[in-house]
Specification:
Blueprint (H helix, E strand, L loop, with lengths): L3 E4 L4 E4 L7 E6 L10 H19 L3 E8 L4 H9 L4 H18 L7 E4 L4 H13 L3 E4 L2 E4 L23 E2 L11 E7 L14 E3 L1 H13 L3 E7 L3 H16 L4 E7 L2 E3 L2 E2 L10 H6 L4 H10 L6 E2 L2 H23 L8 H19 L4 H20 L5 H18 L24 H16 L3 H13 L2 E6 L2 E6 L1
Parallel strand pairs: 3-4, 3-11, 4-5, 8-9, 11-12, 13-15
Antiparallel strand pairs: 1-2, 6-7, 7-9, 9-10, 13-14, 16-17
Bound molecules: adenosine monophosphate and zinc ion (ZN).
Length: 477
């Protein structure tokens, strides 16, 4: 069966092929560089990496654009607090993002584009919208009038027919039930950074950034637009309204949205404070491959609950696969071929391919590989695995690792390079209790290395531990 994706726009699984030629033109919403991104964000970027690799495996060329949002409300507020220019402030986090992405083995999109370097295309887009009668100006800011776009709501499948015309918002992110005229160009405010433009002194809204840059690099109609599920409304809905009001053509044929990474049944997010950055986890001694594996292992449209048990299990799975790889390379085998083992190899690859063709069902693809490895370990135990089966097995691992990319160990000790961690390595109450018990146990056994490690982890999570006459007490800093 052909390659299929679930399209949020049509709410159906559809067969995918690019509109023209062999090149897939894809746009993904990148990071907002106001801080270190967390592993929830990286779940979305890992899904996009798997998507890239699978499209290429299926023989397509890629033209993938990802933006870096380097001007918006939070960035401006944080830069001002630190007394830094926008550029100085965002540079640090942009660098950190790409360092982290490289550790997770995320391929770089063909074009990585910064918002602040594309102000002229945004101005042009807003001017075209004004010419088409879709905008109005209020107190120096330009807004998109959504009543001029009757299809508004078609992506998020909300019925906005009763919207109040003229109600508007200046902030970029807003509530689900709320359809409001959104800001395209924000008038200069006090000491905030601004650009001098024909629209007046000011700065762009977040939504126009993606429409303008996507169309600049990819043309009027994209093959795929992807992002986290929280972006479908309002961000992507607004991108459609803007782009289609300019071109009168479909903006993107496929819309792919990935579900969130959760922690204790809540979305992992900066604002809730329940997050880990990649740096937090590396500092604790977890390996980037295990994190990558964990993030990729659950199909992207399913919620993924982050636990340390899950992360440890991911590490063990990788270890098993590496042991099999080593066993393959180091075992002396009888010449010839075992037919059954050969068949199992072809079947593993076939199931792996069919699973990923099926809207990137990573869980089933992985199951096919495990089943094969289990069977071949068994065959090796019973001397039923022969010389010619070795190369077939290597091929299975190669196909698997071309997408999941976890077999090669990362260099040890590369936890942190340019920057320190974010400081919030969140721990839940029960995790803290378990760690304290483990620490007491380690001290009893005189395993001071382990007890120090646990103390560092608690400290890193902002947990203060006191030795009182009633025993250990802890509180959050
Ligand atoms: P931001 O830097 O906030 O613009 O987010 C970057 C990407 O991460 C977006 O595609 C978001 O939808 C996505 N994202 C944010 N939180 C999570 C989460 N907990 N799980 C998965 N993706 C997320
Ligand atoms: Zn975007």
């Amino acid at each position: 069966m052909a390659l299929r994706f679930y399209n949020t726009l049509t709410q159906e699984i559809e067969t995918f092929s690019p509109l023209t030629g062999n090149t897939v033109r894809m746009y993904t919403c990148g990071p907002t560089v106001y801080n270190f991104v967390h592993i929830g964000n990286f779940r979305t970027f890992t899904f996009q990496d798997i998507l890239r690799r699978w499209l290429r495996y299926r023989g397509y060329d890629l033209r993938h654009v990802m933006n870096v949002t380097d001007v918006e409300d939070k960035i401006i507020a944080n830069a001002a607090k630190e007394g830094k220019s926008l550029e100085d402030y965002t540079q640090r986090y942009t660098k950190a993002f790409f360092e982290d992405a490289a550790k997770l083995r995320l391929e770089q999109p063909e074009h990585v584009v910064k918002a602040t370097e594309h102000i002229p295309v945004m101005i042009e887009a807003i001017q075209q919208l004004s010419q088409n009668g879709c905008t109005y100006v209020s107190e120096g800011s330009t807004y998109f009038r959504i009543s001029t776009f009757p299809e508004y709501g078609k992506l998020s499948h909300n019925d906005f027919s009763g919207i109040r015309s003229g109600a508007r918002v200046d902030i970029d992110e807003y509530d689900k039930a709320d359809a409001r005229d959104f800001v395209l160009w924000k008038a200069r405010k006090n000491a905030e950074p601004y650009w001098k433009t024909p629209l007046g002194d000011g700065r762009p809204g977040w939504h126009i950034e993606c429409s303008a840059m996507a169309m600049k690099y990819l043309g009027e109609t994209l093959d795929i637009h992807a992002g986290g599920v929280d972006l479908a409304f309002p961000h992507h809905e607004n991108e459609i309204a803007q782009s289609e009001s300019i071109t009168h053509r479909p903006f993107s044929r496929f819309w792919l949205h990935s579900e969130h990474l959760h922690i204790e049944s809540q979305k992992m997010s900066k604002s809730l404070g329940n997050f880990y950055t990649l740096r937090d986890l590396l500092k604790m001694g977890y390996r980037p491959e295990a994190i990558r594996y964990l993030l990729a292992s659950v199909p992207y449209r399913k919620k993924l609950n982050f636990t340390f048990e899950g992360l440890t299990a991911a590490g063990k799975t990788i270890k098993r696969l590496r042991e099999f790889e080593l066993r393959l390379a180091s075992t002396k085998l009888r010449p010839g071929r075992n037919e059954q083992a050969s068949e199992r190899a072809s079947e593993a690859i076939r199931t792996f391919e069919e699973s990923l063709d099926d809207n990137l069902n990573t869980a089933e693809a992985l199951a096919a590989v495990f089943e094969y490895v289990r069977a071949m370990n068994n065959a090796l135990d019973h001397y039923e695995f022969q010389e010619e089966n070795r190369w077939e097995a290597a091929r299975v691992l190669q196909v698997f690792d071309g997408i999941f990319d976890v077999l090669k160990p990362s260099p040890q000790g590369g936890a942190d390079t340019a920057d320190s961690a974010s400081g919030s390595a969140y721990l839940s109450d029960s995790e803290i209790e378990t760690l304290l018990e483990e620490r007491a146990q380690a001290r009893k056994m005189r395993d001071f290395a382990r007890s120090d490690e646990i103390r560092a982890r608690l400290q890193n999570a902002g947990i203060l531990v006191e030795d009182t006459k009633d025993g250990l007490r802890w509180k959050r800093r």
